[in-house]
Every structure is written in structure tokens, then in C-alpha cells.
Design goal:
With 643 residues, the protein is α/β, with parallel strands linked by helices. Helix content is 31%, strand content 20%. The protein is built from 17 helices and 28 strands. Helix 6 crosses helix 7, helix 6 crosses helix 8 and helix 10 packs across helix 14. The structure holds alpha-D-galactopyranose. The site of alpha-D-galactopyranose has 10 residues, from loops.
Length: 643
């Protein structure tokens, strides 16, 4: 079964409305609702004064209508009574400002008060609903790192010190790793170490890197603490927390390992005609995190309410974007939210049931999607490893984007990933993401857009891979401590790549550097091909005639960011014997196990020659040869000979 439904906030509505909610949910084919995400103050308006009656009734109603509950632990907004009793649990900014109650996610991730009460609430809910038949999934917290990724208060500082002590053992160990002999920062005790609050100048980048690691870990500890309480009471109910698509702040490889199911919230901007590409990258990450199907837990039926200008989704786009998530491995499509709110900051956020009720095109599209998801039920659960992988590492991302100490602040990891992802996606080639230490067996082509921070273990894993390997610029520069590898880049990748990098040569915005493989932008390097063949050279400028791209065995090194990597990519794909599906620009072709999704993201009809005959599950018709796809329309083919 594919999941269909969304966030349901019945506490924002009088009970008379609930019956209609459930009737319409049934009509639309909703089979899962996320409930109680922000309900702490409603469930426990004063400490220990529980009010479960409304949630009892809602869970009963859901179950009576055959709808499963993704039940939240309700810890995303601690209630006013707790904040007033413990004002110190509110987060503090890097400038020392303590934030006020009045929004959501108002807690210091390290606050023992918040943690104790959150775990108490999770356990209480688990105990009450352990045997409720509607309970099918636990939704811990909500979008960790949304609003509150970090806190700079004294409690956080103490927690950071404990984390550092566990990592380095002695202050001498920390001094060595942080390189505190630079700028006179030698510490003589952990009690002198603070979070990277606003300082007179650039902060030690090793301290910043550890802070990023710590902040991701501190939130994960919270998740783990709630999970432990749930596991004690309901060991068989899967747990998740909703991710925020590809996100700088949290190391999702680590986080996903702590979850039973990866779920994601995705909000591509309807006004951006290319937004389906970046979101596809996120979806592929979600599928790759646990190498299994995932679930789109929140998306938007039409407009959101948090952009400066919130464009609605034109007719057909909600369906198309939903099918896209399925194509990339989601086992359903869920939304924020069921019924459009009348008050609060999200009253203009779209919903499955709009302000205008059932007399709206929005509601008609909700009904249509419900029917489509039923027709597509057979894709649920299917998973297949791709032939191409992009390597992504959070430590390296954090190091690369440290402020104020890099040769250039223009190398952004997400953009570097998209440089490669975009042409792969346009060619209908499925892509996985992988952490650098993962066993890469089975891939034909692995691309490392950038691996600024590269450990010996990562280098070893990459060296063990025997397919086509492409390594992007500014890789192998520093170790896990953000210290430059002896002899400089590419450090532990030197033997693998057969090059040494003498000097980084970043380019200003708008400047390009010619190479025999096309123009480079943002970044070039002065390199030596010590044990590699030179396949492209710089042309003109200071680097004229020097190697730009090298190759050793099946391993290519790019010392620059190619303005258009597509022609180069095509030669690598040919060598790796990887083939996609030929489609017109703006049409997305995605294989999911034995199915082929063809999604027309353009506003024109498009003609496509099917690579294989099959049955379109959406219309239950056989299709072969050339087909026409209407604007924003899709076909989902069960390929012949496959089930
Ligand atoms: C996030 C939150 C939801 C809601 C949506 C609106 O995903 O988890 O509670 O605020 O954004 O887009």
C-alpha cells in the first residue's frame, strides 16, 4: 500500500468539524494521518494535568475510518508553563540573545529540563496508546534543526565540553587537534573552552567543525532519548522523524541509522521551473540513506506560507510532484496539512482541504491523487540500487563551508552535487548518494564532487572501488581535524589520483578559465600529473598549458569546476557503460525497480519514444513506441516482463 494523507491538527477545530474531516478523508482515500505534532500544551496544559480525551477520540475516529496514525510524541513545542518555570531552557543565539516563547521548537537542545520532560511525555503517550489499533508509527519531535539547530547558552557550553572531553580525552589532545598554537589559543583546561560565539574575528575552523558535529549529535541525543522511552513500551512500533530534504545542519547518514524508516518533508518552489531537479537529488538521498524505500511525510498541496512570495502550484503540479516522489522511492505521499488553518502563521499555507472546502479545484486534485495512488499500489516496497553514485559527506561539507578561512567561499557543496546531478537527471540515469566509507560494489560510476575533508579510511574505500571514479577539485585537502594533509592536497588520494596540487587558483564571479575540455568557473588549480595521463589542459591565463583534468586507470581528477560538465560526463558514462532514457528537456525519466516513470515538468506536450513496452498503471492501458505526454502529465509504466 502507498501512504496517502498528511498532518492533521483537529485541536485547531471544533469537534463538529471532525466528523466531516473523517468523511472527506475516507472519500479521498486517506490512509494515514500525522497527529499531535504540536499538541503538548493541549495534552498537558499544566504539569501533570493531562487531557487525553480529545486525542483518544481522534485516534478512535481514525481507526474506525481505516486510517492509521503516525502519532507524534508532541514534543516539538514545549508548553508555556514549562518555559516559564525554566526560562533557561530557551535557546540562546551566538550573540547572546535568549529567544522568547511565541513560536515553536523553542528549546535548547542540551537542556536537561527539556529532555526530561520530553521523555516523560513520550513515555506517557506510549503507555496510553501502546495497544491502540490506529498507532502504526511514532513521529519523534518534528523537523529537528528547524528553527533551533544550535544554542550558545551555558548549558550548551557545558554539554559541548563533555562532548569534547569524550572525543579528545585530555586538553592536550584538544589543543593538538584544534591547532591552538595558532593565534595564541592554547587552553589549559576544558573549562576554558566555549561554543563558537560571536568573536572579534574569524573563529578557529577546527572548533567550528567540532561545533557542527556536536550540534548534530546533541539533537540526535534528544531523538535517541525519546526513542528509548518508546522502545521500552512499544518495541514493535517503527520510529521516524521527518527530515528537511538535503540539509547542511544534520548528518543524515548518522541520523538515518537511528531510525526505522526515513521520512522527508519536501517543498520545491512552484515558481522555480527547475525545482524538480534539486528535489529529485534530495529524494535520491532519502532512498540512499538506508538503501530502502522511504516516505514523503510532508509536502505542499499548493502554496506554502514561509517564502517571501508564495506561488501556488498550478493545476496538475501537485499530482506530478507526488508521482515524482514515488518514482524516487517514496512509499506514499503525505502533506502538510489536511485542512487549511483559519489562524496562526500557516493560515495561508495550502492544504488538502482548502478554505473553500470541496467546491475547489484543490479538493478535486486531492481526490484525483487518492485515485492515482491506489492505481500505483504495486510500486510500494520496491527498491533497486542505481548504477551511479555521488559521494556526500557531512564532515567534509561542514569543513568546506566554514566561514572566513577558505581560499574561496564560493564552493558550495549542494551546487557541486547539482553540477553532476543535473546532467545525470536530464539523461534519465538513476543516481544514489553514498557516504565515502561505504562499500561501493555494484556501482559502475562513482562521482565525488568534492571531498575537502578526506580521511585515510575514506581514501581506502574509494581506492577499493573498481569502476569508473571521478574526483572533483579541492579534495583530499584536510584530515578529520581540518588540518592540511602533510604535503598538501590531494593527501591520502595522491596515489589513487596520481597528482599533486601545488596551489589553489579560485576564480572571481563571472570569470572563466578556458580548458581543452570546456570553460571552468569558480575554481582552478595548479597541479602536477606525477603519475597520471593529462586528458585536458588549461588554455590561456596564468595556468596556460598546465594539466586541468588527469586520468590514472579508471580514476579521473578534475582540478577545476567545469562550467558545463555534460560533455565530459558523456565520455565517462560511455566508458562506464551507463545508459539512461532519452527524453526531451523538462521530462523526467526515472526507473524504480520494474517501473518507468515519465514525468512532463513542462507546460508543453512532449513526444517520447518508449525504451520498452509496458502498461501505464495510471490509465490501465498498454503503451509502446512513441507516446505524447500532455503538459504536467505522467505515465507510470510497468515494464513488460517485469512485475
Ligand atoms: C514544516 C513543518 C510543518 C509545517 C510545514 C509548512 O515542514 O514540519 O509543521 O510548518 O513546514 O510548510
Amino acid at each position: 500500500m502507498l501512504r496517502f494523507g498528511g498532518d492533521y491538527n483537529p485541536e485547531q477545530w471544533p469537534e463538529e468539524v471532525w466528523a466531516e474531516d473523517l468523511r472527506l478523508m475516507s472519500e479521498a482515500g486517506v490512509n494515514m494521518a500525522t497527529v499531535a505534532v504540536f499538541s503538548w500544551s493541549r495534552l498537558e496544559p499544566e504539569q501533570g494535568a493531562w487531557d487525553f480525551a480529545w486525542l483518544d477520540r481522534i485516534l478512535d475516529l481514525l481507526h474506525e475510518h481505516g486510517i492509521d496514525a503516525d502519532l507524534a510524541t508532541a514534543t516539538a513545542t514545549p508548553p508555556p508553563w514549562l518555559v516559564r518555570a525554566h526560562p533557561e531552557m530557551m535557546p540562546v543565539t551566538a550573540d547572546g540573545v535568549r529567544l522568547e516563547f511565541g513560536s515553536r521548537q523553542g528549546y535548547c537542545p542540551s537542556s536537561p529540563v527539556y529532555r526530561t520532560h520530553a521523555v516523560r511525555l513520550a513515555r506517557t503517550l506510549a503507555t496510553r496508546y501502546a495497544s491502540h489499533p490506529a498507532l502504526k508509527m511514532w513521529h519523534i519531535g518534528n523537523e529537528y534543526a528547524d528553527h533551533t539547530l544550535e544554542c550558545f547558552c551555558e548549558v550548551s557550553a557545558a554539554h559541548f565540553r563533555t562532548w569534547l572531553e569524550a572525543r579528545y580525552g585530555t586538553i592536550g589532545g584538544l589543543n593538538a587537534v584544534w591547532g591552538t598554537s595558532c593565534w595564541g589559543q592554547l587552553y589549559t583546561g576544558f573549562d576554558q573552552v566555549e561554543p563558537p560565539r560571536t568573536a572579534p574575528g574569524p573563529v578557529n575552523p577546527a572548533q567550528l567543525l567540532d561545533w557542527r558535529r556536536f550540534c548534530s549529535d546533541a539533537l540526535l541525543e534528544l531523538f535517541e532519548a525519546e526513542k528509548a522511552a518508546l522502545r521500552e513500551v512499544t518495541p514493535d512500533i517503527p520510529v521516524t522523524t521527518n527530515f528537511m530534504s538535503i540539509l547542511h545542519g544534520l548528518d543524515y547518514w548518522k541520523w538515518a541509522a537511528a531510525e526505522d524508516l526515513v521520512t522527508d518533508d519536501a517543498y520545491p518552489d512552484p515558481a522555480d521551473p527547475e525545482s524538480h531537479v534539486a528535489i529529485a537529488l534530495s529524494y535520491d538521498l532519502m532512498r540512499s540513506l538506508k538503501r530502502q524505500p522511504w516516505l514523503l511525510l510532508e509536502s505542499s498541496p499548493s502554496a506554502v506560507s514561509w517564502r517571501a512570495v508564495n506561488a501556488p502550484k498550478p493545476p496538475g503540479m501537485m499530482r506530478l510532484h507526488s508521482l515524482q516522489a514515488l518514482a524516487h522511492g517514496s512509499d506514499g505521499v503525505m502533506f502538510f496539512q489536511w485542512r487549511q488553518a483559519r489562524f496562526g502563521p500557516e493560515k495561508f499555507h495550502s492544504a488538502l482541504l482548502p478554505h473553500g472546502g470541496t467546491a475547489t479545484r484543490g479538493w478535486q486534485e486531492t481526490l484525483q491523487l487518492g485515485r492515482d495512488l491506489k492505481a500505483l499500489a504495486e510500486v510500494a516496497g520496491s527498491y533497486e540500487q542505481a548504477q551511479v553514485a555521488l559521494v556526500l559527506d557531512w564532515d567534509s561539507w561542514w569543513g568546506l563551508e566554514a566561514p572566513e578561512s577558505m581560499p574561496s567561499d564560493r564552493l558550495k557543496l549542494k551546487e557541486l552535487l547539482l553540477d553532476w546531478y543535473r546532467p545525470l537527471h536530464a539523461r534519465g540515469i538513476a543516481v544514489d548518494l553514498a557516504p565515502p566509507g561505504r562499500d561501493l560494489t555494484g556501482y559502475r560510476l562513482v562521482i565525488v564532487p568534492n571531498l575537502y575533508l578526506c580521511t585515510e579510511e575514506s581514501a581506502k574505500a574509494l581506492s577499493a572501488f573498481d569502476g569508473e571514479l571521478v574526483v572533483g577539485p579541492f579534495s583530499g585537502v584536510v584530515d578529520a581535524a581540518d588540518q592540511v594533509h602533510p604535503g598538501g592536497a590531494p593527501g591520502p588520494l595522491r596515489d589513487l589520483l596520481g597528482v599533486t596540487v601545488e596551489e589553489f587558483w579560485p576564480l572571481h564571479d563571472g570569470v572563466t578559465q578556458a580548458t581543452t575540455a570546456g570553460a571552468a568557473r569558480t575554481w582552478t588549480e595548479w597541479i602536477h600529473a606525477t603519475d597520471a595521463e593529462v586528458v585536458a589542459r588549461y588554455r590561456g591565463g596564468e595556468l596556460d598549458g598546465r594539466p586541468a583534468i588527469t586520468r590514472k586507470g579508471g580514476v579521473t581528477y578534475l582540478s577545476c569546476r567545469l562550467d558545463d560538465p555534460a560533455p565530459f560526463l558523456d565520455t565517462v558514462l560511455a566508458r562506464a557503460d551507463v545508459h539512461g532514457v532519452e527524453v526531451p528537456r523538462g521530462v523526467e525519466a526515472v526507473r524504480r525497480a520494474g517501473h518507468l516513470f515519465l514525468l512532463n515538468h513542462t507546460t508543453d506536450p512532449q513526444r517520447i519514444t518508449l525504451p520498452q513496452a509496458g502498461t501505464d498503471l495510471l490509465t490501465a492501458t498498454s503503451r509502446q513506441g512513441e507516446i505524447e505526454l500532455a503538459p504536467r502529465d505522467a505515465v507510470v509504466l510497468r515494464l513488460e516482463g517485469r512485475k
